[in-house]
Design brief:
Layout lengths: L3 H5 L9 E3 L4 E3 L2 E3 L3 E3 L2 E3 L2 E9 L4 E3 L2 E8 L2 E3 L2 E9 L4 E3 L2 E8 L4 E3 L2 E3 L3
Parallel strand pairs: 1-4, 2-5, 3-6, 4-6, 5-7, 6-8, 7-9, 8-10, 9-11, 10-12, 11-13, 12-14
Length: 119
């Protein structure tokens, strides 16, 4: 991975255990306990205990449950995030979110309802 990965995420690039490449489409649910970067497309729900990073070309059409979520691509679905959710300048979420902490960078898009989770 190149240095630009570190620029857009809160975890070091070496801590990402799974990468869904730009030319990959997954139809179905993705589950895991580690950290994942999505540069391709997932048509289905994503449930990751760690951090989910959606790159500029990444698309998720389904609900996401994650420890932390960093969006620089497109999410169409509801989000349940135990920790921090960050929508970057080129990122967009269309759906309702439940999150403890939300950061939307100038240019990022969020269309839906927000519920703040409690400790």
């Amino acid at each position: 991975m190149n240095g630009s990965v570190k620029k857009h995420i809160d975890i070091p690039a070496g801590d990402i255990e799974t990468v869904i490449g730009q030319d990959t489409t997954i139809i179905g649910c993705v589950e895991g306990s580690g950290n994942i970067r999505i540069d391709g497309r997932i048509d289905g729900d994503v449930s990751i205990a760690g951090t989910v990073v959606i790159g500029e070309n990444g698309i998720v059409q389904g609900d996401i449950k994650a420890g932390n979520l960093n969006v620089n691509g497109m999410v169409t679905g509801n989000v349940d995030c135990d920790g921090a959710l960050s929508i970057q300048a080129k990122g967009a979420i269309v759906g309702d979110i439940r999150v403890r902490s939300l950061n939307i960078v100038n240019g990022g898009v969020f269309k839906g309802r927000r519920e703040t989770s409690r400790v």
